[in-house]
């Protein structure tokens, strides 16, 4: 029977992986460590499995006598507005936490890490294969995330080379879907929140920068297969994403068709915003035959919009507790985009009054 640790298990992607892990019959205990920086206990509130143990705290500060057969490290913000607000904390979540968590791996255990397509920087080739070394500016505004992911990868692959540790590293491309924070700040979630609040979808620059949008259910299926379900001998990093490349502007236009009355507004470009993102999935198709990011973005965005709508309605109808208790329960910690959600509440409540 296995003991498994998930760092960042109360977050968007981590909580979906927790659901998948709890389907396993060989699981004795599943420990989640999450400091709730961008995660929320609401993402785990539906679980009643006694094998789950949740610890609130930073992965880099974990103290336990347990040793784990598998460690899944997802404890890092993935949204630029969040990681740029606290770069030192972001670097700790990736680099320091990786070094620390390796101490809790049982002999013969496996360490899985969610890296990112950001390790390719603003790529000069498309699509990007795992062999591409990237074009990253270590002094730029995104460097705390990009470079700390690259450093964590280096640490893990050196641990594999020198100590023989079983390592699984994935490079994720633009994952979206239910359980994303309302104030997440990335393109799809930002557009959906804006469509349901101000009605103005902010496109930075000309919107022609492209991304490869992967719906969470598809991506988690790939992670489940690679991290524990399939018997795999591949030891290198693995691109996981959708290789259908779509511009940010086209996504915004599509969302305006789902939210009548919404419109697009343009803002100055974000510094060093990558011009393109598209995974080369040649290796993935060999390692995980039959896997595809099969959900069209039109379908995935519509599902996510419905989830956002339900979450916002819940915020409107939930009982209001006194002062700080209400803030802790609903907002946890204000971040980028919180103002639009709060504004929506006030406007909708005034309409209902």
Fold and architecture overview:
With 353 residues, the protein is α/β, with parallel strands linked by helices. It has a domain at 2-175 and 213-240: NAD(P)-binding Rossmann-like Domain (Rossmann fold, 3-Layer(aba) Sandwich), CATH 3.40.50. It is built from eleven helices and 13 strands. It has helices at 12-21, 80-85, 87-101, 143-163, 187-196, 216-229, 248-258, 282-287, 297-317, 323-330, 338-352; strands spanning 2-7, 27-34, 52-56, 68-73, 105-116, 166-172, 175-176, 200-204, 210-211, 214-215, 238-240, 246-247, 263-267. Strands 3-2-1-4-5-6-11 form a seven-stranded parallel β-sheet, with helices on both faces. Strand 5 (105-116), helix 4 and strand 6 form a beta-alpha-beta unit. The protein is globular, with a radius of gyration of 20 Å.
What descriptive keywords fit this protein?
seven-stranded parallel beta sheet, 353 residues, alpha/beta, 11 helices, Rossmann fold, disordered C terminus, two-stranded parallel ribbon, globular, 13 strands
Q: Report the structural category.
A: alpha/beta
Provide the residue-averaged pLDDT.
90
SSE arrangement, N to C = EHEEEHHEHEEHEEEHEEHEHHHH
Main β-sheet, spatial strand arrangement: 3-2-1-4-5-6-11
Q: Provide the β-strand percentage band.
A: 15-25%
CATH architecture of the domain at 2-175 and 213-240: 3-Layer(aba) Sandwich
- Shape call: globular
